[in-house]
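Re: your question from the hallway

Yes, I did run it. Sequences:
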Amino acid sequence: MWLYEYEGSALFRDEGILVPDYALATSAEEARRKAEELGLPVVIKAQVLTGGRWLAGGVQFARSADEVEEVSRRILNSSIRGLPVPRVMVAQKVEVEREFYLGVTVDGYSGMPVVILSTEGGVSIEVTARDHPERVISRQVDIITGLQPSEAEQMAQQAGLEGEELRQVARLLHTLYRFFRKYDALIVEINPLVRSRQGTYFALDAKVEIDDSSLYRHPELKVTMEEHISHPLERKGHQLGVTYVDLDGEIGIIASGAGLGMATMDAVSRCFRPANFLETGGAISADLLYQVMELVMQKQGLKAIFINLYGGINPIEEAARGIVRYLKEHPTTMPIVAKALGNRQEETWKILESGGIRVVSGVATESGVELLARLLEKDR
Amino acid sequence: MSILLNRDTRVLVQGITGRAGRAQTRWMLDYGTNIVAGVTPGRGGEEVEGIPVYDTVARAVSERGVEAAVIFVPPPAVKDAALQAIESGVRVIAVVTEHMPVHDAMLLKAHTVGRKVWLVGPTSPGIITPGQAKIGIMPGNVFTPGRIGVISRSGTLSYEISVNLTAAGLGQSTVVGIGGDPVVFTGMVELLELFSNDPDTDAVVVVGEVGGVQEEQAAGFIAQRMTKPVVAYIAGQNAPQGKRMGHAGAIVRGDAGSAESKMTALREAGAEIARYPLEVVSLVTKHL
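Structure:
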């Protein structure tokens, strides 16, 4: 789960990482008031859970109260990469002398934390790694012993820092690593970390992703997943305990596993466009599949549904009962094709067919797509 | 032989008294798995499906002799359950549990360094040597004995690929689900090496998906050291950027982790690339 910048900034402060004074506003008038309290000039930043805010005009400076109001109104009325902007952060502007990048993330292959430092702040680390690999210092950390202060100092030295600058940056790297461990983060980034003209080090952004599987042990975060999912159908999916990803096509997809769901999307995409990706996970019940049908059917412009199930840990005959109960209560003329294999497959087929669902006889997902194509052709 | 598991392997089920553990123990026994013990702390002395339950892994190992374990305990308990099995000298361990905290997975992986243990998962469907034994949750009826090795990040997709191979008369030597999390214990490279050295495997199917660098690392191994044909399918060719596709590790970040980059790396390494699951069958056939 990505945290909003203002949530990450508050946590940074708790851990001793300085951020410029800021306030939140949901209207242009409120932004003006807050800016006057903080003192001008300020920077106005859209609070949205997506990257690329700068390019989309979501981060702007304002020198006067009138300008604050005008800029805030424009940002609050805009959308950034398709997401509405419910609030802006108004923050004191810092006179920047030097910028850095600091990050800690999970190296998927080694399975170790990796700490990254660069003297190129304010640009994405992927871009720096591509254009100036010599300016990216990274180090894998033994998670059992943790990042030692001396290791952080070595990294700062490798980056060409010395004296007070080396000491400050190393201290912040070490603090950031502890932050990463404390909050079960997948990614924490300070980009940029800046040294101000007065020699103070500030985090000018807070990019934090917490591991969803660890939220249960972080009640102190006082955040819920629902507040951090922007799309209403995706939010609904999360409430049900399934993964729903909204797409812009016309074929609804329900799959009993993530890989199967993606492969179903790939197969469907050969002839049509998927309307969604939906993966039930391993806790199928009749009630869940009833609600999953309800969710998928809400999508505008839906023309057909493809259901792809394997009975391993999942009781697929229960899935079939839930789907058919939904269809009996909400009859539809829309073609629905299902493939179901594994434990209790014969029983599952009978139940699905009793609800008017066309069950694919072959074992390949592709044969289901062909059947779908024939049914939709006939509809025309 | 096959890799990791056969009909004689003595198996322990951790979390055997839970709902999933109990139901899956029945399915595994029906398949022929040699389950010799179960563990649930506080439930020692009970029986599940005729299998004796112990309080600790150490006791189960000393009394019953255990070579492999399959773990069904809830996410917060996985790290300690697996550590117990490692400390007791269990050789093959499959973690089926989904939603294990990623930092716990990193800690656990750090504890396996330098030890002779095959720890698979988390979020793994398990391991099956068709016709002999399975430790995990996969449905037995989609697999058939044969000479094709399968390595998959996704459980359901390992079933889909195997059922297609089975329908074409191509059985599987062993099928291993490595799991779809951002950190997995045993990666594709280690398993490619096992299959490469297995006299009963003629070719290997690698089933990848978007996110991470497993497939790129596998490509490195294939280019340099793989001695057998490899066919790969990468799921999520139409996955949007920045969205988690059900698996915690299945996410495209910027240019990194896209299906396209994985397919290119594997193709350049000499693997055959299937564009969709069914194409795996014809590509495997071509090389036999």
